[in-house]
Description:
By secondary structure, the protein is α+β, with helices and mostly antiparallel strands. The chain contains five helices and four strands; from the N terminus they run αββαββααα.
Amino acid sequence: MAKARIVRQLSTTNAAYIAGIIDGEGTISLTRRHRNENRQLEVSISNTDMALLQFVKECIGAGRISSKGTYRHNHSASATYSISNRQALCLLRQINPYLRTYKAKRAGLILENYLKLTPRNGFYTPEITRLREEFVERFLRANPLYR
Length: 147
């Protein structure tokens, strides 16, 4: 198995810059890769400027960039940078002081709760399952567009 890449320590300038990009163009989400799985932390940025996404990946030292298809002739090709789970948690620790939108609240909830409600062995007691479901609901409600 490949060893997980370590997230680099960001300079104050780069942490603030990346936080601004995430505030404007990014997402902090709890996603499912498969239907019955628990949600996993993911931070992503979608953009048409590949150089910007490559800069972010180089600064952070981890994550991946994937191309997105275009479905209409008048749409520009775009790509998404994403980083997940504990690497994303490490990134959020560094950029959280600079987030200004509702994503700051989401990052705070993640930093406060994610590790204690995500056992590394995958064993969820009924209590942890209940607390995690409550946490996910609070997290989703931190987006003003969520109903």
